[in-house]
Design brief:
118 residues; c-terminal domain of poly(a) binding protein; 0% strand; rod-shaped
Length: 118
Amino acid sequence: MARVTLAVPSRRRRKKVLDRAKGFYGATKKRIRVAYDAVDKANSYSFIGRKQKKRQYRRLWTIRINVACRPLGINYSKFMNGLKKANIAINRKVLSDIAIRDSEAFQKLVEKAKEALA
């Protein structure tokens, strides 16, 4: 009985890995054994990166809100506490956008937060 090599499926598998390794440095993009490891590592980094992106955006929004609050005489944590007490449910993404684009509306929100704290 002849030996079955499964040439077409294995070539397809290798081609997928090498396509994924395009743009990698040196032999990593050309040699299949090195490319397997590099692609696995890249996949793990991309998984981690998707989780980190969410954290980094939330940090950015927090910083933007804090920077907009300080000149109005309140810090970030007191502002958020005041909004919660005033039953104003706006997420940080929208708050940071309001702080950047519409300073008058943000000022009104700060006033409401201050009233709720007093």
